[in-house]
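Sharing a chain and its predicted structure for anyone who wants a worked example. Both blocks are below, sequence first, tokens second.
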Amino acid sequence: MTNPVNYFDWVSRRAKCSPGVMFEALDVALKQDVESVQRMLQERHNSKLVFQHARVGNAVVVTRERMDAANPGTDTVQFSLTSAGITVQRDNTMRFVIVQSLNTEGTCKMNVDGQELEIWQVCHKALDGLFFGD
């Protein structure tokens, strides 16, 4: 069988657009983000914060440890792969769920609350407060 003009094999593309594939890509981005924030802290000679990335099975945890004697503590953002998508929790409180979808251009995208996001936007949404705020 020959391919009709402008045929797009959406079935194959959609099959590759799975929660597992998106989770792997997100894991790589999260690790890079943690490395970036650690470099920034080293450049600023800030030893009161330590960030870590850890992968355990179907979960990735980004941890912030405050080494300040006046305000010690640990905060986490956890990304967990489920059959429905990827859940994001901050300190054991559900923040949002990421689901994958094939957009009108045939690109696999992450969706949060009906909004199509790039991987960096998902990382920003999940980690901005941990890295720069509360």
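Comments welcome. The mean pLDDT is 91.
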